[in-house]
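Input structure tokens:
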């Protein structure tokens, strides 16, 4: 089996590449040119991967990437994925995260209509939630240009499935984290920040809205769900989540507690991290995935905090 993965240099792409290599796949990563190479997350497997240079903004480069890799499966994980930036660059976010999906689908349809296609949809599409918990039938109400772009990409995936009978699935994944999470996302910012404080490398941590609630799972667990969706007889969309919700404040408390620190002594609120509007509460119902894919989350909230805090503490200690 051959797979083409967009966003292979990101958190999910790196775990997915490891997972597919373990399953015996030939894995092609679609990467965009950069003046400084950005392969940290895949350095340990780079010799086993093949790379094709393309950009989600550039239709012909995507066609060439598919021509060269001749994939049986395409995993479209590439996107501008940081919500606050989507207010600063709404048009570019629409291009990468929204229209980029259509460019991938168009290229796939022209090259090989039988290719299986996975789209990285997001719980951000539920935004100002219309019901609790959220499942595959919950109406969307996105609250950021990122969320709006994801809704567009989601419905294009559904539309190509229905218009051209393509095997195209959307995984509506709730927040998933890991030691490989980008430093600006709140979970990593907190575990990394707390570890720095513990080691005497910082004396405070500035955050925004502590009341927002998220359904946080472990990225490594969630990757398997993507693969399972493409292994079914029929293409469908699935919610992937833990079913538990916790506030940012609870994440902060748990992370500092792991290091025997009292978070209230160190955390400051900085208004610049507060968004024009936020998503207040997310909690997913992934009973469809459980029933049809046999998928279930394995790492709970405290387990995830521990994995990330221990990793960051040990990493920073080694650098000293
Ligand atoms: P990351 O931000 O870690 O990775 C994003 C990837 O997209 C990077 O490899 C980046 O490449 C690539 N990319 C960005 N723009 C382009 C472009 N124009 N052309 C080609 N590649 C591009 O995200 P995650 O791994 O966390 O998320 C993967 C996907 O899942 C994203 O689509 C995200 O929106 C979605 N998602 C994530 C969730 C989460 O909690 N992590 C939850 C739900 C959905 P480069 O290294 O060059 O910047
Ligand atoms: P999110 O993740 O927006 O849910 O999108 P993020 O970790 O950025 O924010 C989660 C919540 O934490 C609050 N918050 C802060 N966030 C950041 N980044 N920095 C802070 O200092 C801070 N303080 C409080 C935010 O207001 C928010 O409520 C992630 C991304 O991976 C998306 O690509 C993905 O689609 C969704 O998860 C599901």
């Amino acid at each position: 089996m051959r797979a083409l993965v967009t966003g292979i240099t990101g958190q999910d792409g790196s775990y997915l590449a490891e997972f597919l290599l373990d399953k015996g796949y030939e894995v092609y990563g679609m990467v965009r040119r950069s003046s400084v190479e950005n392969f940290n997350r895949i350095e340990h497997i780079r010799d086993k991967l093949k790379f094709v240079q393309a950009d989600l903004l550039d239709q012909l480069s995507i066609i060439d990437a598919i021509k060269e890799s001749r994939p049986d499966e395409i995993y479209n994980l590439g996107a501008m994925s940081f919500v606050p930036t989507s207010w600063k660059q709404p048009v570019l976010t629409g291009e990468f995260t929204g229209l980029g999906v259509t460019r991938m689908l168009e290229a796939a349809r022209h090259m090989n209509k039988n290719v299986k296609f996975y789209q990285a949809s997001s719980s951000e599409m539920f935004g100002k939630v219309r019901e609790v918990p959220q499942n595959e039938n919950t109406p969307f109400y996105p609250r950021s240009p990122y969320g709006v772009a994801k809704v567009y990409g989601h419905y294009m995936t559904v539309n190509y499935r229905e218009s051209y009978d393509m095997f195209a699935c959307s995984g509506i994944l709730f927040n998933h984290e890991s030691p490989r999470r980008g430093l600006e996302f709140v979970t990593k910012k907190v575990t990394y920040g707390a570890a720095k404080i513990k080691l005497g490398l910082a004396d405070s941590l500035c955050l925004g809205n502590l009341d927002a609630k998220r359904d946080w799972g472990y990225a490594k667990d969630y990757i398997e769900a993507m693969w399972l969706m493409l292994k079914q007889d029929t293409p469908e969309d699935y919610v992937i989540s833990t079913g538990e919700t916790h506030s940012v404040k609870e994440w902060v408390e748990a992370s500092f507690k792991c290091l025997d620190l009292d978070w209230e002594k160190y955390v400051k609120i900085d208004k610049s991290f507060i968004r024009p509007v936020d998503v207040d509460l997310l909690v997913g119902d992934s009973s469809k995935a459980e029933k049809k894919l046999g998928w279930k989350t394995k790492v709970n909230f405290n387990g995830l905090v521990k994995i990330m805090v221990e990793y960051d503490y040990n990493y920073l200690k080694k650098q000293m």
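Residues 25 and 128 are 39 Å apart (CA to CA). The first strand starts at residue 2 and ends at 6.
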